[in-house]
Every structure is written in structure tokens, then in C-alpha cells.
Design goal:
Chain lengths: ~625, ~325
């Protein structure tokens, strides 16, 4: 089909719809179409049909501009030309915005952006160590491509808990109005979409995504794509895209095949088939060979920055132990419930009922209202008359303590002593509600944050906290994926029994963008399990001072039959006396220490890349 | 020095040359001229520029259809924009918008300028030269994107002789002693014989040839890289079959092939962003008794005009398109 426009100057014979679009820019309002490739002088020339039609239409209308306007148009055309890759537009473009949000890009981040665009053609694994700002690097790359007109449709896949953070970072730091995916219509409707990988891979979403073409695909926490046989890998590998960034601090952890699968997802063939890869580069699954060749190949698609001079130097952490003395009534309640727990633990052994006991032990350390919930649930379930009676007595004791708490009093004291903002973390919703109630009674503006809140409500609350409240009381699930660099006081009202969760808590505040010293207040009730936990986390593991990150890698190296929490519960509930508990916790701490040393010293990726050992730097 | 759009150049900003006219262009100079052309009130305030815009001017600048919003949504007649051209880390941004390559405001101004002046026409003249005829050329101004291993952009202008159906890429802008006159002087002009489509095809031919000559090294490098990538992929696919590699890897291969075809296949993507209809002067030269037409601007002989070339007195006026209503 052709469009014939009778023109006064030239008869126009412009073929329309003759060739399908080579580059379907469907994200824009108007889809640009191109003529079939034209060969001339040994060069393939692909001309825009849309642009010529625009000229033809204007000629038809006799739309000849005054010379001054035409000169301006030619000047505008000169300004349209984007400079070469050696100059980053994002740096100029976002300077004012970065100043407003307090972001100072590190030279290594700009260098990574430059390298990915100029040398790696927008196809890379960003494997910086935890906390070095992979999200910022990816945001810079996305923005740079957008400024150059090379990316119009982009997809960002992240764990559900991080999608909101991505949305915010893109908006605040780069002025990118991404859409948080909510319905199946968003995939096509929005140019830049942030979505959860788990949602995206499910029908009908996956079919829609596979039918679109993305200029840039970003996958955060890409270690979830290490196995080529998983639905995640298959889904991502089939997404049509032109450029791709995979973000993970640990592209290889326990098996070189993980690295192979990620590289193959990014650039198939780079490492050959798996058999070829094995023959050339694998001695055993954790020992590479011919690392110099492997390193050369990896340099074509992997960028890794490590902590050290020239990278991020976070402000120091100050750790404050806040000992709490239980009142005599609270002490009686604690001892009574602890006795009940020990008896039941011995009776239950390794049955499923032990989990409820572990939870109760943790709740007991947190607050009376938290313990009361589980006690009430056990009472309802109990069939044994003696057990029911004993639980009833415990419940009656607890009810007397519903409104008092030495720990909450201590928290009030701490908050009143300062005008600073505090993020108070607890593991339990009942404790969260209790703390908020106590703070409100004392006239302190406090907000709540928990996992049941929608993303927008969380952001609203975060902004309220930033501008209008002194305290935010958050459960761990609530705090996931949101950062509070504007605050520098973290209160661990109760201590998680898992070091990974502790790291996540502190990481909400002590991270890139934090400019002030961070104070960590650890509440620990004297002569309770909390003292042991604090001893393990603080004294044995130095968890509060070391900015190590990568605790998941550490935990993966810890060969345990049960979870970390269960191991602690086994020690606390299964030991006869305090000395025994401490000895067994020491042993556990030593195991964890060794695993951490191994994770740092023995990073498989860094051995391949020939990076220096990180242990000293991390310390 | 060429008078251009850099008269209000910001300190340290290196001007770029506009295609064809060769006007030196800076962000600040371009902005000032565009705002003046729009009729906005512009006032320098320190290093910033304070601009008062009517709602119509703002709509033109931001590419908003005025009628799509109720009047209360559009800013009133005193819409104020403060523009800044140099980033100073010690100064707070305040209300000022930093104008930089790629910024929304800059993109809007470029869009507005191109939208208003995409098509232009002029007569080429030089002092002391008295042309006997004018030859119409259509100069396409292409934004050329080099797609391949090392992507980049440039603007190239290709002039097509609308009578003789010959095209060439202009390597130099119009400079001394040549002047571009917005109005003709009554010199008779040859009538164009080509359609716009034919002229465009000829321009693409010329463009391809010129790029092949001037950027041969880029082409060779991009092809080598592309072939290397394809070769890796071919080897991998063959070996994957031999090694009974997982099926999912074949899908990854297919995706990669598509990516390579779209991104790494060395080619140039061109957009005819603007066009100038230019009347170039011709003079007659005699070699012995034989006369031939000569184009002094392009410094070349041109094939003769057809027998009934618009030699009548009203020729060029008939051929020249009517100026737009604007």
C-alpha cells in the first residue's frame, strides 16, 4: 500500500506499511516505522519511514517555515546529537537531583556505568560486593540509555520485597517515572515497569512479557537464576531484550556451574557448552583452573567492585548495650514460662510442636503481650487437663503484667533523652502494638510499620516518619526493602536469633547515603536468654561493628542439620545450667566465625578474578 | 566569525555547528533565540535566565495540546520558568531548571524548534555572481545513528539535484562568500522532476556511499565484532547439540540471535529530521562554442536543464512552494 499525496512541489510516492517495523518503538505514543534496509556503498542504511512521511505531510500543506525558524530547527538538530560513549550524560543531567537527595556518585560507580555502556554493550553482571550500590549503578545505566534515546521500554525484576525500593530509587535519584506492576495491563501500558520476579513468571504475565521486546532488562538478586533448570532461569532467558543487567553480589557461591549458568543467560556461548566449560575451567565444582583465560572471558560481561580505598566508606557504628532489669512480677512470669518451656521441650523432643516452643521463648524475651498470644493459642489447643491448667495459671500471671514493662520504660527513657529519630525493631506484631501504645500514652509521636501494609502506605508512613514523627516501630517484615538513611538510631527492642535478620535491620539505616554516625541500641534483659543472644551476636560474632554483608553466603557455608534458630533453641532449652549454655553458644559462635572467614577468604569469584583477599578490608 | 546561535554562549560551553548553515550553536544561545522567536519575555537574573511565558507559549514548549486541559489546569499568562545553564555545587537549585543535554526542558525546546521549522527554503547567492538560472536541490538533514559495536550519532546533509537526479553529501557548511537568502530575486529556475520518495532514495544512496568512504574503519570493526559474536553462537549451538545441552539453553540462544540482529548488525539508521529546498545558482560556461551549465557552489558541471525548463518569467515563483501561513 502506498500513500500518494498530491504536492505542489513534488508528487510524493511514499510506501507505507510496506515493511514491518525493524525497530518497534511501541513504548512511545507514535510507533516509528522504517523502510526495508537500503544497501549503498557497502553500508546498510535503514531509513525512518515516519520521518519522511512527516516531511511529506508538511510539504503537502505547504508548511514552509520562515528562514529564521528553519535555522533554529537546524540548530536544534545539531543539539540532538548525543555525544560519544566516553561522556556520561547522566552525570550532567542528574547533578542537581543528586545534590537534592544527597547522593554523591563514587568514581567506581561512574566507571562501571561507562564500562557497561561503552565496552560491554549494556550486557553485564554487576557483581559488586553487598552495600556498594549496585542499584545505583543500574539506575545510572538505565538513565544514561534513556537520555541517549536507546532505551524506551525497560523491565526491572526484583524480589517482591524490593520492588518498592526500586520504584523509589528510580524516581528520587534518577527522575525515572517507573510503574510498579499491579495488573496484567501494566506490562504493555508502561514504558518502565518494576515487578516481582515471582509474579512476572506466572501466567498470564509471563506470556505477555515474552510477547514484548525490552530495550533493557534488569534482574536484581540474580543469584536466583543460577540454576538453568529452574522456572526463573527459563522465564528470564526467553524474555526478548536488547540489553540485560544481572545484579548479584554472589554470582557463584558453591559451584562453578552457577557462574556458567548466569553467563550463559547473559551471553550464550561465551563459556561454550557446560561440558566444554568443565573441561577447560573446572577442576572440581569449587576449584577453577586456567583462571587467567576464564578471567579474560568474564571481563567481557562481569563487573565487580570490592570494598576498599576509593569505594564506600560508611560512617562508624556505635553500639550501646541497654541492660534491662525485670520487675519482680515480670521475673516470676519469665521464670514460670521458661520452666514450662524447658519441660515441654524435653517432652516434645524433635517433633513439630517444638517450633511453637521456640517461638514462645523468643516472644518471652520480646514482651509479655507477645508471649501471651502463643500461650493463649497453646491453651486453646491443649487437651491434657494438667497442661491446660498450667497454661491457665501462666495466662493469669501474664494478664497482671499487660500494662507494665521494664523494657518499655527503658525505651521511653532513651527516646526522651534525645531529639533524634529512632527506628525501633521488634520481631513480633504484638510487641510492636504494645510499644506504640506505650509511646502514645507518653505523648511521643510514633508510627507503625509492618508486613501487612501496602507499598504505598509504607511509603506514606516513611514520609510521615521523615517529616513528622520521632519514632517508627517496625517489624522486620515491615522494614524490608525500605531505607531510612535520614535516621541514625536503631533500637533492637528484641534480638533476632538469626544474624542475617540482624544485618538486615541495621542495613535499613547504615547504608549508602548515611552521612552520620549510626547508634545501635541493643536491649537485653538481665539473666534471660537475651543476654546469651547478645553475647553470641556481639561478643562472639562482632555483628554490630563489622560491615560485612553477604551473611547469606556465610549461613550457606554453615553446615547445620537444623535452622540457626533451632540450634540456639536447642542450646537454650536443652541445657541444664548457665555454664553449659555459654559453652555450647561458644562452640556455635566459633562455627559461624569460621564460616564467615571462609566466605570472605575463599570467595570463589574473587579467586577467579584475582582480586585481593577481602578479609582485612572487610574488617 | 560566523553569526550564529552562540551569541549568548555560556562560559566554557563549546559550540557545535548546525548542519548546512554552519551556525555555531550553544545550549544557552539556542535557548535565547528560541524563546525570543516564541515571543517570551526573557530576563537575565545573575547567571540564570528568567522566562515569562503565556500559556500558549508554554504549551508550544512542552508539546501540550492546549485544548486538552481545562483552563484552570494550564498556567496563567504569567507562567514563570527559571533556567540555569551551569551547575554550581555551592548554589542551591531552588526554582531553577538546569538545562543540559537530554533534560526534559531541552528536549521540549528541541521538539518545538524542529516542529516549527522542519521545512525551509532559501536561495544561495554570492556577491558579484549573477546567476542565469537556479537549480532546485532538496537538502535532507539526516540524524544518522551508527548501530553496531560502537554506537554513535551525527548529522549529515545530502543534497539531491531535483532535475538531474544526482545526489551528494555536503561535507562543508555554506560559508563565505556564499549567503543564504530567504527570498528569490526572480532568476528563472528549472522545474523539479523527482518525487520526494525518489529524492529520498537518491539521498540514501549518497549517504551510504559517503559513510562507506569516511567510516570504513568503523564498519570493518563493527563487522568483525558482529561476526565474532555470531561465530561464538554458531559454535555453541553446534556443540550444545553434540553435548545434549539442556533445551532451555537453545531458547537463550534464539533470544541472543535476535538481540544481535537488532543491536549489533552493523548498519546506519537515518531519520530525515529536516529538509531545505535550496535554489543553487547556475552559470553558463563555454568550451569553444559549446556551452555547459556550471554550479559554482558545488564547483561542478551539471547536466543541462530540460528543453522546456521553466524559463518563463514567473518560473521560480510557480515552482517555489508558498510560504507557510506562519
Amino acid at each position: 500500500m502506498t500513500l500518494k499525496l498530491p504536492l505542489k512541489t513534488f508528487p510524493v510516492d511514499v510506501p507505507i506499511l510496506g515493511a514491518g517495523p525493524l525497530v518497534p518503538w511501541s513504548a512511545g505514543a507514535v510507533q516509528e516505522t522504517f523502510f526495508p534496509p537500503h544497501e549503498s556503498g557497502g553500508v546498510e542504511v535503514v531509513a525512518s519511514e515516519s520521518a519522511l512521511i512527516e516531511l511529506a505531510r508538511r510539504m503537502e500543506r505547504g508548511d514552509w517555515a520562515a528562514w529564521q525558524q528553519h535555522r533554529l530547527a537546524l540548530a536544534a538538530l545539531a543539539l540532538t546529537v548525543r555525544p560519544g560513549n566516553e561522556r556520561l550524560l547522566v552525570e550532567e543531567h542528574c547533578r542537581e537531583r543528586w545534590r537534592q537527595v544527597g547522593l554523591v556518585p563514587y568514581p567506581y560507580q561512574l566507571a562501571t556505568c561507562r564500562k557497561v555502556i561503552a565496552e560491554l554493550d549494556g550486557r553485564a553482571i554487576l557483581a559488586d560486593e553487598v552495600g556498594l550500590g549496585k542499584t545505583i549503578e543500574a539506575g545510572m545505566i538505565l538513565k544514561e540509555y534513556m537520555l541517549r534515546g536507546l532505551v524506551r521500554r525497560a523491565l526491572i525484576l526484583a524480589p517482591a520485597s524490593l520492588t518498592w525500593q526500586w520504584y523509589l530509587e528510580l524516581k528520587e535519584k534518577f527522575g525515572i517515572a517507573a510503574a510498579l506492576q499491579r495488573s496484567e495491563y501494566d506490562w504493555e501500558r508502561c514504558a518502565v515497569v518494576v515487578a516481582s520476579l515471582d509474579t512476572a513468571k506466572r501466567p498470564p504475565h509471563c506470556d505477555i512479557i515474552h510477547g514484548l521486546e525490552y530495550d533493557l532488562l534488569i534482574v536484581d538478586e540474580a543469584h536466583k537464576l543460577k540454576n538453568a533448570r529452574t522456572a526463573n532461569w527459563r522465564f528470564v532467558s526467553a524474555i526478548p531484550r536488547r540489553r540485560c543487567l544481572l545484579l548479584t553480589a554472589t554470582p557463584v557461591q558453591n559451584d562453578l556451574r552457577e557462574l556458567y549458568n548466569l553467563i550463559t543467560l547473559l551471553r550464550p556461548g561465551t563459556l561454550g557448552t557446560y561440558r566444554q566449560f568443565q573441561r577447560r575451567f573446572v577442576l572440581d565444582r569449587r576449584t577453577p583452573r586456567d583462571t587467567s583465560t576464564l578471567r579474560k572471558l568474564l571481563s567481557t560481561c562481569l563487573v565487580r567492585n570490592r570494598r576498599g580505598p576509593g569505594t564506600i566508606e560508611l560512617p562508624p557504628r556505635r553500639v550501646h548495650a541497654v541492660p534491662v532489669e525485670l520487675s519482680s512480677a515480670e521475673r516470676r512470669f519469665y521464670e514460670a514460662v521458661s520452666g514450662f518451656l524447658r519441660d515441654e521441650y524435653r517432652r516434645a523432643g524433635a517433633t513439630s510442636g517444638v517450633l511453637a516452643l521456640i517461638t514462645l521463648q523468643r516472644e518471652l524475651c520480646s514482651s509479655v503481650p507477645a508471649a501471651m498470644e502463643t500461650l493463649a493459642a497453646l491453651w486453646h489447643k491443649a487437651r491434657d487437663g494438667d497442661l491446660r491448667e498450667r497454661l491457665g495459671r501462666l495466662l493469669a500471671m501474664g494478664e497482671q503484667l499487660a500494662r507494665t514493662s521494664a523494657k518499655a520504660d527503658r525505651l521511653l527513657e532513651l527516646i526522651r533523652s534525645s531529639d533524634e529519630k529512632f527506628v525501633v525493631f521488634t520481631e513480633f506484631r504484638a510487641t510492636q502494638l504494645f510499644i506504640r501504645w506505650r509511646l502514645e500514652q507518653a505523648g511521643i509521636a510514633a508510627l507503625g510499620f509492618d508486613g501487612t501494609m501496602s507499598a504505598s502506605k509504607k511509603e506514606w508512613t516513611r514520609q510521615l516518619f521523615r517529616h513528622a514523627a520521632q519514632v517508627l516501630v517496625s517489624t522486620e517484615a515491615g522494614g524490608e526493602g525500605l531505607n531510612f538513611q535520614f535516621c541514625c538510631h536503631v533500637v533492637n527492642y528484641d534480638l533476632p536469633w538469626n544474624p542475617m535478620r540482624l544485618e538486615q535491620r541495621i542495613g535499613r539505616v547504615h547504608r549508602l547515603g548515611q552521612t552520620r554516625e549510626v547508634h545501635i541500641h541493643n536491649f537485653a534483659t538481665r539473666d534471660t536468654v537475651e543476654e546469651y543472644i547478645l553475647y553470641l551476636l556481639h561478643e562472639k560474632l562482632n555483628m554490630f561493628h563489622a560491615v560485612l554483608g553477604n551473611m547469606d553466603a556465610v549461613m550457606a557455608r554453615l553446615a547445620m542439620e537444623r535452622s540457626f534458630e533451632q540450634a540456639i533453641a536447642g542450646i537454650v532449652l536443652g541445657s541444664e545450667e548457665a555454664g553449659d549454655i555459654r559453652r555450647r553458644l561458644d562452640r556455635l559462635g566459633a562455627e559461624l566465625e569460621a564460616a564467615r572467614a571462609s566466605a570472605l577468604e575463599d570467595s570463589l569469584l574473587d579467586r577467579i578474578l584475582g582480586h585481593p583477599r577481602a578479609w582485612e578490608a572487610a574488617r | 566569525m560566523k553569526r550564529g546561535l552562540a551569541s549568548k554562549v555560556g562560559a566554557g560551553e563549546r559550540p557545535v555547528a548546525a548542519p548546512f548553515t554552519g551556525d555555531p550553536v550553544t545550549l544557552q544561545g539556542f535557548t535565547a533565540e528560541l524563546l525570543a522567536a516564541l515571543g517570551a519575555r526573557v530576563e537575565p537574573v545573575g547567571d540564570d535566565v528568567r522566562v515569562e511565558l503565556s500559556s500558549a507559549q508554554l504549551a508550544a514548549l512542552e508539546d501540550l495540546p492546549q485544548w486538552s486541559f481545562p483552563p484552570s489546569v494550564l498556567p496563567g499568562p504569567d507562567a514563570l520558568v527559571v533556567l540555569r545553564f551551569t551547575f554550581d555545587p555551592r548554589r542551591s537549585g531552588g526554582e531553577a531548571e538546569l538545562i543540559s543535554p537530554g533534560s526534559e526542558r531541552m528536549a521540549g525546546m528541541i521538539r518545538a524548534a524542529l516542529g516549527n521549522g522542519r521545512l525551509g527554503r532559501a536561495w544561495l547567492r554570492a556577491g558579484g555572481l549573477e546567476p542565469e538560472r537556479d537549480r532546485p536541490y532538496l537538502v535532507f538533514h539526516f540524524l544518522v545513528t551508527y548501530v553496531g559495536h560502537q554506537s554513535r550519532e551525527r548529522v549529515l546533509s545530502a543534497a539531491v539535484d531535483l532535475v538531474a537526479a544526482e545526489a551528494l553529501v555536503l561535507t562543508e557548511p555554506v560559508g563565505d562568500p556564499w549567503l543564504l537568502k530567504p527570498k528569490g530575486d526572480g532568476t528563472p529556475a528549472d522545474p523539479p522532476r523527482l518525487t520526494l520518495g525518489e529524492a529520498h532514495t537518491l539521498a540514501l544512496d549518497a549517504l551510504g556511499r559517503a559513510i562507506g568512504q569516511s567510516d570504513g574503519q568503523w564498519l570493518a570493526d563493527a563487522r568483525e565484532w558482529f561476526e565474532g559474536e555470531l561465530e561464538t553462537l554458531r559454535h555453541y549451538r553446534y556443540a550444545a547439540h553434540e553435548d545434549e545441552e539442556d533445551d532451555s539453553l537453545a531458547a537463550a540462544c534464539a533470544v541472543r540471535l535476535r538481540e544481535l540482529a537488532a543491536l549489533a548488525r552493523p548498519h546506519v539508521r537515518v531519520r530525515a529530521e529536516a529538509a531545505t529546498l535550496i535554489y543553487m545558482p547556475l552559470v553558463r560556461r563555454f568550451v569553444g562554442r559549446k556551452a555547459s551549465w556550471y554550479n559554482p557552489f558545488l564547483n561542478c558541471a551539471v547536466p543541462g536543464a530540460p528543453a522546456r525548463a521553466g524559463s518563463g518569467p514567473g518560473g521560480p515563483r510557480q515552482l517555489a512552494p508558498k510560504p507557510s501561513a506562519r
